[in-house]
TrEMBL record:
Family the UniProt entry places it in: Belongs to the bacterial ring-hydroxylating dioxygenase alpha subunit family.
Gene3D superfamilies, per database record: Naphthalene 1,2-dioxygenase Alpha Subunit, Chain A, domain 1, Rieske [2Fe-2S] iron-sulphur domain
One Pfam family this sequence matches: Ring_hydroxyl_A
Keywords carried by this UniProt record: 2Fe-2S, Aromatic hydrocarbons catabolism, Dioxygenase, Iron, Iron-sulfur, Metal-binding, NAD, Oxidoreductase
PROSITE patterns cross-referenced by the UniProt entry: RIESKE (PS51296)
Keyword Protein biosynthesis found: no
Organism expressing this protein natively: Actinocorallia herbida
Residue ranges, annotated region (Disordered): 1-22
Coiled-coil regions, chain positions: none
One MF term in the entry's GO annotations: 2 iron, 2 sulfur cluster binding
UniProt name for this protein: 3-phenylpropionate/trans-cinnamate dioxygenase alpha subunit
Domain Rieske: from-to ranges: 63-161
Length: 448
């Protein structure tokens, strides 16, 4: 599925309204991110004004993950989510096109859909009863005769996300009316994503629904870790590695001391993965089912020995995934010091039921809301955030210098890579963040 609106977003009449520039003051963040020197100012995790600027300049113009195509099978199927802090409805219209709308009634602003998912014919606001069809048009207005003759329902439909596209079953949207395509935005990152998403022609499906939980911590802490940080594994996850090791034995040295590569993308994406000829899926049932020779023929040796299984990745700004257990997740920002995590388990559609269930259970045990690895990560992010507001603490720079100068074309993996233990993708993540934060978005150009 690949689609975009055939016309401009739904018109938003403003009449005599003029928003003062003071409400959209911008901070020059150049001095807060020294990507070249590997230093970071903690204010980017705590400052409210910076956070509000992120909504305008990071989340409004970027391609953001919305849902998986397997969540929509017939017209009227819908799923409600967020783009930054903007609530949106993703739905299949009568023509079987996937569309997304701002989940806010044009009358008084309440959500027109409060369910997480389901199937419907219309979205009706429970405040005053304005109703909108699957194409976003306003189709019912109680007491319509009370409005002036100038009132036209065609002008007051739901505000539509102007561009919605998908890549191997992952649906993304952007508010930018003139973006680069999703595929162009992904660049070389698509090669690494294919190692998880393109095992066979049938694609992937969702199993087990969507798990949601709230963490104290800035959204960037999670996004950057999944882009760049294998370094924390041996320390933070020591107990989990011990639990997963055979009874009475320590984790194997080749697991504790992994070697591999880290992909560094100029658009802020990142992926780290061990490289070993015997990389395998962790769940035994899943490992036994896969035909690794067929995967090598389809994906190539480099992907099977690298990003196919163990590893971590982030598509800038806030979509991440873990290939080994089929986990995909979004870090929804909920203020400078809070995030809401939404996580799916995806599996190959060709997988038999018992293999799907094995992968789902393995994901829950490791990276579900109470997973043995997931709990460690959430504790780290919350700890970092808990003390970041202190006056002295907030003024002390953070070090992102591991692996500086080691990025190169390695001849085996697309784009530039560094060693597995490196902050390279983290530096690139924040360099992209700095660039967007200091660049006017389309809506600011219109005002100017």
């Amino acid at each position: 599925m690949s689609s975009s609106s055939e016309s401009a977003p739904t018109a938003t009449p403003r009449g005599a309204l003029r928003r003062p520039a003071e409400l959209s003051r911008s901070v020059d963040v150049s001095g807060l991110v020294d990507a070249e020197g590997g230093l970071l100012d903690r204010a980017i995790f705590t400052d409210e004004q910076i956070y509000r600027q992120e909504m305008r300049r990071i989340f409004a113009p970027s391609w953001l993950f919305l849902a998986h195509t397997d969540q929509f099978h017939r017209p009227g199927d819908f799923f409600t989510t967020w783009m930054g802090e903007d609530p949106v409805i993703v739905t299949m219209d009568k023509g079987r096109k996937i569309r997304a709308y701002l989940n806010s009634c044009r009358h008084r602003g309440a959500r027109v859909c409060r369910a997480d998912f389901g199937t419907t014919r219309n979205f009706t606001c429970t405040y005053h009863g304005w109703s909108f069809d699957l194409e976003g048009d306003l189709v019912s207005v109680p007491n319509k005769e009370g409005y002036p003759e100038s009132f036209e329902t065609s002008q007051w439909g739901l505000v539509e996300v102007p561009h919605v596209e998908s890549y191997h079953g992952l649906i993304f949207g952007t508010w930018n009316p003139s973006p680069v395509s999703l595929r162009e935005s992904l660049g070389d990152m698509a090669w690494y994503m294919d190692a998880m998403l393109d095992h066979d022609e049938q694609g992937t499906v969702v199993v087990g629904g969507v798990h949601k939980w709230v963490l104290e911590g800035n959204w960037k802490l999670a996004a950057e870790q999944f882009a760049t940080d294998w370094y924390h594994v041996n320390m933070s996850h020591a107990s989990a590695l011990q639990v997963l090791a055979p009874a009475g034995k320590k984790p194997k040295q080749e697991i504790v001391h992994r070697s591999g590569r880290q992909y560094v993308d100029p658009n802020g994406h990142g992926a780290g993965f061990p490289v070993h000829p015997r990389n395998r899926f962790d769940a035994k049932t899943v490992h036994d089912w896969f035909d690794y020779d067929a995967l090598r023929e389809r994906l190539g040796e480099a992907r099977v020995e690298g990003p196919l299984t163990n590893g971590h990745a982030t598509v800038f700004p806030n979509f991440s995934y873990l290939p080994v257990n089929g986990s995909i997740r979004i870090w929804h920002p909920k203020g400078p010091d809070r995030m809401e995590v939404w996580a799916w388990t995806i599996v190959d559609k060709s997988m038999p039921e018992e293999v799907r269930e094995a992968q789902r259970l393995y994901n829950l045990r490791t990276f579900g809301p109470s997973g043995v690895f997931e709990q460690d990560d959430g504790e780290n992010w919350s700890e970092v955030q808990a003390i970041a507001g202190g006056f002295i603490t907030n003024s002390v720079a953070l070090n992102y210098q591991m692996g500086m100068g080691g990025e190169r074309e390695d001849g085996r993996h697309p784009g530039r890579t560094s060693e597995l233990y490196s902050d390279a993708a983290g530096r690139s993540f924040y360099a992209r963040w700095r660039e967007l934060m200091n660049t006017r978005a389309w809506h600011e150009e219109d005002r100017a």
